[in-house]
């Protein structure tokens, strides 16, 4: 058995045997056009086009390989609320969030009076914790590429794996053969339906989970610089103050003294991506994905970039090291795909981008700042009550102040007359706020004429971006676009930066298509993430639904997509 370590990280051992296998790999098929038996779709959570461009000259591993295929450096999530759940829901459905039913990570459920999670489903349980937050694809009202494939090729296998449930489920869809996500302290978990057992559902990852549990119990975790990138990442070390807390952006991150802290630090580190890719390789080899006559699908959502971006920002030494390790580990994973007997088509993109934290941007001379949610909303409610003579607080925004819900007394449903006067006054007050670019009535957005089908995602109005995020019954009543670099988030010890805005730093993502033999081709015009699924469908001879927002883009220069 061969063991490999994350370079520069003490203790996290993964038994892979990859090095021992390298000499036995068969020669991969090479073709100038993709003829895949395995489609691998990778989402790197919070991997903005800016982050890709900043580090692209440094790539030597998997990201360097994928950048030798078809490269769209200006891909777009063209909706407004650029969060993980809605962003992932666009990647393989070919639809915007207003058609996937996933407009945000969370929304206010008027029926229960509580915040609902985007994938929450009380009819299932979690394999690792029957009392934990249960999730499934039920809230996703669109089908995915994997669903389309299985409808015409029942023997095709579809698996999804991620560091987050919303990364694994929304990409692999309703008919997936397995959807697994990393749960710190347990390993990879999934959901269990009535009549199923947790043991059976976890069987594909049971051996991996056992090994991970053993490693975590016997070894400490210390995140230090990888040798290859240490010098350039160390140069980014600096001291900051966020939310009244002084801290230094630097590695190493020392080992926490308690289990909770250790798991927290582990999750927000390159380790999450490493074990996710290990799970992807395990599933690929266990089920022989790509080895048979049918086309198989493996979706992989890598969450560490997002965790690290939230906790330390996007342009410090922590992210520098993360991107270097991501590049390296993707290289190892792509090398493992040389064992696939059929052709492999790989797509890499992101669910959203992300800006750096406000204080670092301000230190660099940018007009950046924060909007602290609770006092902002409290002041708005106070003024509305005074203006309209209300006896209750009419606005709630438990999921974030960019989506505001109007409620009646006791949080009941307001009358039509109350709603109309509340929203009219609220829009006036919000639009006067110097931190706000524009606020919208969600119902008015539904009445807007959609942008033309051939409209470029980089030229869409803010109203159109908002419209693409409106799903009735889930989206807020008032939608707020704060000005660029005005962050509606409160900094804390483990949270300094965010995303979710309609601005390009959160919308722009790279979109890469690669296969053995692909001719490098840089395509500078914008591509929408909803175009990925119909493009894959055409490449594998699958007919997509007729009501898609996305369109097929030819992967071979000069050749049109097949009908």
Number of separate helices: 21
Q: Structural class, please?
A: alpha/beta
Can you count the beta strands? 26
The CA-CA distance between the termini, in Å, is 48 Å
Quote the average pLDDT: 91
Biggest beta sheet summary = 10 strands, mixed
Helix content: 25-40%
Query: What is the molecular shape?
Result: globular
Taken as a percent bin, the fraction of beta residues is 15-25%
Low-confidence stretches: 1-28
What does this molecule look like?
With 563 residues, this protein is an alpha/beta fold. The protein has 21 helices and 26 strands. The longest helix is centred in the middle third of the chain and has 20 residues, at 317-336. The model is unreliable at 1-28 (pLDDT under 50).
Mind sketching the topology for me?
Layout: E1 3-5, E2 9-10, E3 13-15, H1 18-22, E4 36-44, H2 49-55, H3 62-66, E5 70-76, H4 84-91, H5 97-100, E6 106-109, E7 114-117, E8 125-126, H6 145-152, E9 158-162, H7 165-172, E10 178-183, E11 187-189, E12 191-192, H8 198-202, H9 206-218, E13 222-223, H10 230-234, E14 238-242, E15 245-249, H11 259-267, H12 271-286, E16 296-302, H13 304-312, H14 317-336, E17 343-349, H15 358-363, E18 369-370, H16 373-388, E19 395-396, E20 403-406, H17 416-432, E21 436-441, H18 442-446, H19 462-467, E22 478-482, E23 486-487, H20 504-507, E24 508-515, E25 521-522, E26 527-528, H21 532-539
Parallel strand pairs: 4-16, 4-17, 5-25, 5-26, 9-10, 9-16, 18-23
Antiparallel strand pairs: 1-3, 2-13, 5-24, 6-7, 8-12, 10-11, 14-15, 17-24, 19-20, 20-22, 21-22
Helix pairs in contact: 4-7, 12-14, 13-14, 16-17
């Amino acid at each position: 058995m061969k063991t490999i370590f994350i370079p520069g990280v003490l203790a996290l051992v993964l038994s892979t045997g990859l090095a021992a296998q390298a000499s036995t790999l068969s020669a991969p098929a090479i073709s100038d056009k993709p003829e895949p038996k395995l489609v691998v779709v990778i989402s790197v959570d919070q991997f903005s086009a800016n982050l890709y461009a900043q580090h692209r000259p440094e790539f030597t591993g998997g990201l360097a390989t994928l950048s030798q295929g078809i490269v769209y450096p200006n891909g777009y999530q063209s909706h407004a609320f650029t969060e993980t759940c809605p962003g992932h829901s666009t990647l393989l459905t070919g639809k915007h969030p207003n058609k996937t039913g996933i407009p945000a990570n969370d929304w206010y459920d008027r029926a229960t009076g509580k915040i609902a999670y985007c994938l929450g489903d009380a009819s299932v349980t979690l394999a690792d914790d029957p009392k934990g937050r249960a999730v499934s694809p039920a809230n996703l009202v669109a089908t995915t590429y994997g669903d389309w494939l299985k409808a015409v090729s029942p023997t095709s296998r579809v698996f999804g794996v991620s560091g987050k449930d919303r990364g694994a489920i929304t990409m692999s869809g309703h008919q997936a053969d397995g959807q697994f996500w990393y749960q710190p302290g347990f390993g990879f978990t999934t959901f269990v339906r009535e009549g199923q057992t947790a043991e059976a559902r976890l069987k594909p990852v049971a051996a991996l989970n056992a090994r991970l549990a053993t490693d975590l119990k016997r070894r400490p975790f210390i995140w230090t610089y990888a040798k290859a990138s240490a010098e350039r990442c160390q140069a980014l070390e600096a001291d900051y103050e966020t939310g009244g807390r002084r801290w230094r952006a630097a590695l190493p991150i020392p080992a926490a003294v308690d289990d909770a802290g250790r798991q927290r630090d582990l999750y927000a580190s390159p380790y999450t991506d490493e074990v996710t890719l290990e799970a992807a390789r395990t599933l690929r080899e266990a089920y022989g994905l790509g080895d048979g006559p049918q086309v198989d699908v493996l979706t992989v959502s890598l969450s560490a970039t997002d965790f690290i971006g939230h906790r330390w920002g996007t342009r410090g030494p922590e992210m520098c090291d993360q991107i270097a390790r991501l590049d390296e580990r993707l290289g190892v994973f792509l090398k493992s795909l040389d064992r696939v007997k059929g052709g492999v088509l790989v797509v890499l993109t992101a669910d959203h981008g992300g800006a750096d934290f406000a204080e670092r941007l301000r230190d660099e001379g940018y007009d950046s700042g924060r909007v602290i949610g609770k006092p902002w909303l409290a002041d708005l409610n106070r003024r509305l009550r005074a203006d309209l003579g209300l006896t209750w607080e009419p606005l709630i925004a438990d999921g974030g102040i960019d989506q505001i819900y109007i409620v009646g007394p006791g949080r009941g449903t307001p009358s039509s007359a109350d709603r109309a006067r509340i929203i009219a006054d609220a829009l006036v007050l919000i639009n006067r706020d110097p931190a706000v670019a524009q606020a919208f009535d969600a119902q008015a957005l539904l009445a807007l004429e959609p942008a033309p089908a051939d409209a470029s995602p980089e030229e869409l109005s803010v109203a159109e971006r908002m419209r693409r995020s409106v799903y009735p019954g889930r989206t807020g009543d008032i939608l707020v676009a704060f000005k660029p670099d005005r962050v509606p988030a409160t900094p804390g010890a483990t949270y300094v930066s965010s995303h979710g805005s309609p601005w390009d730093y959160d919308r722009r993502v790279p979109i890469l298509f690669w296969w053995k033999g692909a001719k490098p081709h840089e395509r500078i015009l914008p591509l929408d993430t909803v175009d990925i699924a119909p493009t894959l469908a055409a490449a594998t001879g699958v007919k997509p639904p007729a009501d898609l927002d996305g369109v097929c883009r030819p992967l071979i220069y000069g050749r049109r997509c097949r009908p």
